Amino acid sequence: MKRSILLSFALLFSLISMPAWAGSIQVEGAWVRAAPPAAQVMAGYMTIKNHGSIGKTIVGAHSPQFAKVEFHETLMRNGMATMVARDSLVIDAGNQVVLAPNGYHMMLIAPQRRINVG
Fold first, then answer.
1. Of 5-9, 34-38, 110-114, where does mean pLDDT reach its minimum?
2. 25 and 11 in contact (C-beta within 8 Å)?
3. Which of 15-24, 25-34, 75-84, 105-114 bottoms out in mean pLDDT, i.e. has the lowest?
4. What pLDDT is stored for residue 115 in this prediction?
5. pTM of the shown model
6. Which of 6, 28, 40, 44 is the most exposed place for a label (fewest CB within 10 A)?
7. Are 112 and 69 in contact (CB under 8 A)?
8. Which of these, 65, 61, 67, 26, lies nearest to 47 by C-alpha position?
9. Residue 10's pLDDT is what?
10. Does residue 67 come out as left (phi exceeding 0), alpha (psi in the -120 to 50 range) or beta?
11. Is the pLDDT of residue 16 over 50?
12. What percent of the chain has pLDDT over 90?
């Protein structure tokens, strides 16, 4: 199946509650888990939908609010939950990927300023 590469995926719009669009990609229900004020790592969750007719591969994300953003997946290994970094997220045509606790998520590393609730 032919896939196109989405070279950059701006996380900035994922910090707002309304749906956001990037071409045929739509982000809905984005939220960041509350963390202590000094936390250097936070988790981001959302649903990413591909309304296009060809698959998309998201190969990176960035935000001016964090020094680094990574995709991770939580997996069970030998009865223990572990996080595995992922280089990309594949979203088939007409499908979606859900970033949620205990599954795929974004690791938001080194906040550039304190992130407040709301």
1. 5-9
2. no
3. 15-24
4. 78
5. 0.76
6. 40
7. no
8. 26
9. 39
10. alpha
11. no
12. 56
The first and second tokens of residue 112, run together, are 């550039």
> What 8-state DSSP symbol labels residue 118?
-
Number of Cβ atoms within 10 Å of the Cβ of 66: 25
- Token pair belonging to 22: 């990037």
Q: Is 63 exposed, middle or buried (0-12, 13-18, 19+ CB in 10 A)?
A: buried
User: Is 104 in contact with 71 (CB distance < 8 Å)?
Assistant: yes
DSSP-assigned states of every residue in 10-79: BSGGGGSSS-EEETTEEEEEEEE----TT-SEEEEEEEEEE-SSSEEEE---B-TTEEEEEEEEEEEETT
Round to whole Å and give the CA distance between 24 and 57: 12
